[in-house]
Amino acid sequence: MASLGDFSCFSANYKDIGIGDYVERICRVLAEHEWIYNFQLTRFFVEKVWEKLPKEWRKPLLSLSTDDLNHLPTGRVKDDWPTSLKDFVETAASLALPRQQSHDLVAMEINKDLARGMTPKKKHEVSYLASVIRDACRKTSCSTVIDIGSGLGYLGQVLHHQCGVQVVGVEAQASHVHGAQRRIKSQGKDADAQIQTVNLKLEDTSSCIHDLELLINTLQQSPSKDQSQTDVFNRNNDVERENGTCMVGLHCCGDLCPTMLKMFVSVERLKCLVCVSCCYHGMSVTDPGSRPSCFMNFPLSRTVKEKLKKVSTEFPDWQLNVFAMRLAAQETQARWSCQSYEDHLFHTRTVAYRAVLEHVVTTGGKGIQKLKRKVTRKDAFQSFPVYLDAVFGRMTLHSDETVRTEEDWKKYHDALQHSHDQWEEFFPYIEIITALQVLLQPVLETLVTVDRCLYLQEQGLKTEVVPIFDDRISPRNLAIIAER
Ligand SMILES: C[S@@+](CC[C@H](N)C(=O)[O-])C[C@H]1O[C@@H](n2cnc3c(N)ncnc32)[C@H](O)[C@@H]1O
User: Fold this and answer.
1) 176 lines ligand 1 (CB under 6 A)
2) Selecting from 3.30.420.40, 3.40.50.1820, 3.40.50.150, 3.30.930.10, what CATH number does the domain 112-284 have?
3) Most buried in the list 12, 105, 430, 440, measured by CB within 10 Å?
4) Residue whose CA is at the smallest distance from ligand 1 atom 5
5) What is the dihedral of CA 358, 359, 364, 367, to 10 degrees?
């Protein structure tokens, strides 16, 4: 597998420059092009986002074919583009960590009973992640696994029954803990004899470290109860029964992944970590105005802290905030590249109509605020008149003191139509800016992931990052794998 230590998982272009320069280049590209991601998409017209697009880029980007638009985020450029545009697209694409599922991986075939209730996406994830965890446990002699943020316990069950490891789930939400127990029972299993799920919110506190250590003790002292049972699940008990514990997590959202990394550093008895993150925008914000990052758990590493600081001296207004992290957690270019002309038109309409509404609400005063209630039905975006019906259909006349008469309704209706007509000529910029966002999405995600890996490396822990899922099926596909 590719290893972060020797940079072999990084883009070939940056192999020779060293990690510090690599991180600095990422920061620089993100700082220089902040206008591409640092805004709310519904404020597209309010903020006139296209005006930030360099003038010489506009014509070549507006004349792209669907195929060219689809492949821009892969770094495909055209000869007649201005040099600044070519350089940006090529540089950004070359900075991103590779996302193609590693060829070395072999999916574990999940037993039919255990797969019950899993979506095809979950099945894909669990089949690859369980296989990676089994190999990591073998390598580090771990016979026990703590699944953090275990949700309904799909992963834990497969690890227990098909890999022969003792598993405990840690889950903050009581409803998920009960859901996991119900699931085990529905399979005719006694919940107590199987995988325990502890209702605990993992936090970066000494008392939580203590709880985790107690959990490891209990786990390591209890033999795998399933060993004596009839092998109804065809369990392949092939992990050497040693005494290490591996901490794992599938789609650890927000602060959960950084918290796990800190726990892994602090708790000596955790020998191995396998963690896939998601929802970076869910991380806690310390101070919304803080620059260049407003998050408590980003950056974590010395290297990224230093480089962010250095680049932000040149770009003092640059901020990695919730908009940046939300983009980092979006789909990768794999799905974007398969879109048809009609898909792009539909996406344009969904963004444009909401942005028209936002513009009217922002400029139209108090009475119109209630129109902002979300319209989410897909068929509402067939055309603008259909969208208007959906917006007004959600309101009842006289429901708001300031919207009292038929004339009020007509006034707002006309204001929306007027705003639509005013901005219509700028609708084509929506897909262009979106394509540039899809180009920067993996760069932002790379920065967060590399920061997490470097944090562990700086603590002397061997760490690697591996794309373990097919990103067309599961876009958050980067697993951080570490051992002590
Ligand atoms: C995106 S879900 C993933 C669930 C499961 N691993 C899966 O892939 O099906 C994240 C889970 O982590 C749990 N979670 C979030 N923060 C947590 C924390 N600090 N401690 C424990 N669980 C947490 C949530 O309640 C949620 O069930």
Assistant:
1) yes
2) 3.40.50.150
3) 440
4) 151
5) -10
